[in-house]
Model the fold of this input.
Amino acid sequence: MSKIHLVSGACGFVGRNLVKRLLKTTEDFIFIVDDLSAGTPEPENWYNQPLEKEIQDLKIYGPNERLIFRKGDFRDFLREIMQDPNFLNTRYGFNFPKFSDVYHFAAIVGGRAKIDGDPMMVALDLSIDAEFFYWVCNYKPSRVMFPSSSAAYPVDLQTDMDAIALSETDINFNGSLGQPDMTYGWSKLTGEYLAKIAAQYYGISVACVRPFSGYGEDQDLTYPIPAIAARAAAKEDPFEVWGSGKQGRDFVHIDDCIDAILMAMDNISDGSAINIGSGKLTSFLEIIEVFTKIAGYTPQIKPLLDKPVGVHSRYANMDHVAEKFGWKPKISIEEGMKRVYEKALERNKK
Ligand SMILES: NC(=O)c1ccc[n+]([C@@H]2O[C@H](COP(=O)([O-])OP(=O)(O)OC[C@H]3O[C@@H](n4cnc5c(N)ncnc54)[C@H](O)[C@@H]3O)[C@@H](O)[C@H]2O)c1
Done:
């Protein structure tokens, strides 16, 4: 019998790229749940899968009807399937086995403006993740992916003066945890702790990842990379940058993120976490330079010092991932940014 996987938050940036990959590389069924709160469109707009039919509140896509979408709060879905683990079959008349792999991307994210601007809203992630792991420990799917974040790392390791390349061991649940980045970082750290509890106390196979700054062509314009690309493509001058622009991040292309997520799912089961980054620190001024060079002009830089910028320098040490799993990102900053720029030109034409 075919397998069926569950992906929450599948209309978001990471979720939809993961689903695209699963559609391409497997023949399995994929059940996706998203409340579309992040303003992303419905699946037919980005999976290239035609709508085949609707059953009650489900939309079923693709010639083989492999993609099944339920619009709604993931917590409502979890409560229903908690009451009846066979819920998909009893309610909708399917004949599916239990979910095999579960990828949990439903979260309130929203970038710096949201993390600093509405921290209590972001704290709702604690509620989504607590209900998620409670369900996981009862349902016992074959494998679970929990995306943590580089925001879980102690902020005092990311200052102007003391920034270091962040290693997995800089978070130690048996020792020092430090102060993560706002409610977003606390929710990710708590999620990682729940993942460990699920593995150790309930025998669940769980992998966690800590992506640094994922970017890609189809990312929302509220995120810095596509927004900067769009402004460079429109030849903005003077060019606005949040803060001084000297603050830096570790930018990693979404295709590399998906590779690493799948690699982690295959190799980690004890709830531990690995970094997903390039290992390089790139400042926002450098990003502006890359894009304006592609656009063929040199603008004046206009710092916006009242905008939220977060920590000064956040980047990954990728040694552990390279040594233990032999994994390295494949897409360079230049190649990745070129792809984003080409998409920005298309977007600007519309
Ligand atoms: N994008 C990155 O670079 C990055 C970096 C670190 C960690 N992560 C983590 O990866 C996960 C996905 O991030 P993303 O960038 O795709 O975010 P996103 O905002 O693009 O996607 C999140 C999705 O979850 C949905 N959602 C929110 N609350 C929901 C709920 N209660 N029920 C159902 N759906 C709900 C939203 O509608 C959205 O489609 C998050 O946990 C995030 O913290 C992402």
User: Anything to note?
Assistant: The chain has two domains: 4-214+253-276, 216-249+280-315+330-349.
